[in-house]
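Today's session is about reading a structure prediction critically. Students often jump straight to the picture, but the first step is always the sequence itself: look for stretches that repeat, for charged clusters, for runs of hydrophobic residues. Only then move on to the predicted structure, which in these notes is written as discrete structure tokens rather than atom positions. Here is the chain we will use throughout the hour.
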Amino acid sequence: MSNKKIISKKTSMRKQAPSDRKRNFFEVALGYTVEDALKEAQRCLECKKPSCIRGCPVEIDIPGFIKKIKEGNFLEAASLIKENNPLPAVCGRVCPQEDQCEKMCVLSKKGESVAIGRLERFVADYEAKEKSTEATSTLEHLPKKSRRKVAVIGSGPASLVCASELARKGYPVTIFESLHEPGGVLVYGIPEFRLPKEIVRREVEYIKSLGVEIVTNFFVGKTRTVDQLMDEDGYEAVFIGTGAGLPRFMHIPGENLLGIYSANEFLTRMNLMKAFKFPEYDTPVKVGERVGVIGGGNVAMDSARVALRAGAKKVTIFYRRTRNEMPARIEEIENAEEEGIEFVFLVAPVEYIGDEEGWVKQIKLIKMRLGEPDSSGRRRPIPIEKSEFTTPIDTVVVAIGQIPSPMIARTTPELKVHPRWGTLMVNEETCATTKEGVFAGGDVTTGAATVILAAGAGKKAAKYIDYYLHNKEKREIWKELSSKEL
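Below is the predicted structure for this chain, in token form.
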């Protein structure tokens, strides 16, 4: 370990001023300059046993790429990251590094960790600006194509990583996406000011350059079933990475009033269908002056900040616990606070009240107190009797989580799903489902989680799909892969 003086603080990253950014959809964080990146890279201690890699779900060689930055070899740093993660510009922006690789950094014990995410973003953006030929050179070294085709359902992070890993192993891979643009939650769920869509398109193009085919407007379960893909179309393995895009509601009185949106619908209309540009785009969303967002995760922060940019004068987040229990990234909470979004803690909605025309006009809330910790490790919110109160509201966005769509499971009887959550049941080690030849990973198996955890599942699944296709003639292979005893 180096004896140099340790700098305890991360190199700061430039951002748009709150007064400017809250009225535009341009990216808030502006990224590192070359000087910033070199300065931050020097903070890395080059540990002999780097614990940061253990905190990365896709096992990027973090000290290796940071060393390349120190040397000024930014394109080599990007190539090194892409050996394990084809989505560096995405993950550098939206992954919760503070709970993963950065949490494991030795420097975090006495100060702030190395800004691994910011450095990952820097080299990905630098490569794009330089228009590197890295993708082409990678393509030239791909193995000869196998005859065994693999179908990947969905085009979110789990699917994109799985497809790229399989393509690198020489498999012909086709991604089937139900929407008109690939990217999954990266394009319909995460706002432009946090993840510009051009960044997603750029990384999708890289994956296509590896030989991956992407078919859009193809809804597996309706256009074709999983069984048809395998039995009639010749795909010998299938990966399901369709995410968790079905909204959850609270089932309280008034929930069907006009002006009440699921976060899924609200963000999809705004992000993918550009509702904020109506009438230039033809999917308007009525955003009133007073918007209430229910929930405390990243999706709630995104919804609130989008509402503000869409013209709301007052946006309030209602959360049933306190700020300390909010699952959203601290960075996103702070950004929301800086932009003037109000937080009301220890409350939960119990009823929505409408006007004569059926539009929501008030929200009735009940005050809460915190009890003993529940299964999540957070203290359970308990309603306080006779503490209800109402507040005027024009629009409500419900952001309390999502579950997977049941369409694929309904049309594939051999797939088992969790009886409560509707997630596909898989062997956690191999990602094998209960149907031979079909694997799954990401939010469709875990419920809504993070981009990088989905990416890690896609990478793991690719490993075992490759193993399966090399050994599928063995009678016991699927029993081995799907066994819970692994």
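Discussion point for the tutorial: The two ends are 37 Å apart (CA to CA).
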